[in-house]
Amino acid sequence: MAMASTTCGSMLGMEVKPLTKGRLMHQTLPPGTIFGHPKGLFLLFALEMWERFSYYGMRALLVLTLVAVSDGANPGFSMGQGDALRLYGTYTALAWFTPVIGGWLADNFTGQRRAVLIGAFIMAIGQFILAFSIPGDLPLFYVGLGVLVLGNGFFKANISAMVGMLYGEGDARRDGAFTIFYMGINIGAFLAPFVCSTLGEDPAYGWRYGYLAAGIGMLLSAVVQGLWARSLLGGLGVKPSRARGAGGEKLSVPRLTRIELDRLRVVFMLFVFCVLFWAAFEQQGGLMNLYTNDKTDRFIGGFEVPSGWFQSANPFFIVTLGPIFAALWSRLGRRRRNPASPVKMIFGLILTALGFLLMVGSTYDHGSAGKANMSWVLLAYLLHTMGELCISPVGLSMTTKLAPARLASVIMGVWFLNNFAGNYLSGLIGGMTDSLSDGTIFAGIAGALLLFAVLLWGVSGLLISWMHGAENSVEEGV
Asked: Is the pLDDT confidence value at 239 over 50?
């Protein structure tokens, strides 16, 4: 390995490890590991867990709150189903648009750590605004959604970029680390509906208390960072990565090399395929949420399972299957047989398509029996989860491998724009229920996913060559 230059050291204002192939490796961290990974990974795991508790708790309630009648036992906003799904799509899309701005601000001004803390406090405020807009104050509800979008911009890209900063180029642990991090996301997502939906869907409490619980979860993320970030992360993410040197002088930004440009081409091309995945996957919080509420038999004996609890199925499967996938990628990496990221994503598209084919079967069950058996929905969530594990954490890890270190957060923000486009498209697809049947929509999604899997297979060789060995494993720390 070549030795790190003093320029790179001054750029970050802290001690750095050597450079590998021109990319900045992980900065000096407090000593010690857990399960072979830096301790800081598990702090970031906890921060993201509480943030996702907040997000998914709110998401499980959003469309149900909007369509609930304003004069019912648990009053909402009396919005039509199509309008509610379009609003859901617009909100979730914007929540994934602002991270590119937050990433740029962190790279140039605030540093990742401060941006994450700012975002946590802003999102807590947004959840509390939603709570106090109920019942009946729709304009204030919109304000709350806007504040959440702003806070997510500071938080989302920067915490993911910090996970990547824990590892050097070629470190075979990185894919496994992002899968572990992804488990943190989904532990929060699993717990959230049991708390937020249980409170929000119960007329004895009402929607307001569900959003209050989500806001408290967001505050816990900020508290956890304040207590343990310094001892577990050291100086990681404290200073902007490219705006200023140790003496405060403005640094020039080197032009992108040919290899860096090729690697960014991979990010942008895979972006297109992931847009369709997220457009399909986010039907869980929209169309599939309403389908479960209205057309699925949710009784177990004499107990009717709250609709929002089904939102815990996906994170439950993530937490259950995540360690298996993490171990699989790490083991294959040590043997130098780990599939390239584009290949993993092909598998993900196919698995997600199979899940929607099950939902087509569910509509036939609903048509013949009056209510569909809940096993259809649960099995679809299982396949969607397996697809997600082949796409989402893999995409996060891949982006940190391919992005130039000086642009780490902003490129992560750009990667999250595929969630922005996918969520917006998800809302448009869900809104088609005004004119198309559920079965037609589910079948169309499955067909599109399979088509995109074939197209990605056709270009995968080119994409792998453009990576210039960025995913080749180095047995460091393994």
From this structure: yes
Structure token digits, residue 217: 């979860």
Residue 304, strand partner residues: 299
CB 298 within 8 A of CB 292: yes
Has residue 477 got a pLDDT over 70?
no
Least confident of 122-131, 201-210, 467-476: 467-476
Interatomic CA distance for residues 130 and 55, integer angstroms: 12
The Cα 115–Cα 136 span in angstroms is 33
- Which own/partner pairs from 85-88 qualify as long-range (CB within 8 Å, at least 24 positions apart)? 85/286, 85/287, 85/290, 85/427, 85/430, 85/431, 85/433, 86/427, 86/428, 86/430, 86/431, 87/427, 88/62, 88/63, 88/285, 88/286, 88/427, 88/430
Domains and CATH numbers, the chain: 38-243+256-298+311-466 (1.20.1250.20)
Rg for the chain, CA atoms, rounded: 22
* Interval 89-129: pLDDT, tens: 899 889 889 988 998 899 888 999 999 999 999 999 999 99
pTM for this one? 0.74
* Spatial separation of the C-alpha atoms in residues 164 and 184, rounded to whole Å: 15
Give the pair of three-digit tokens for residue 281: 């996957």
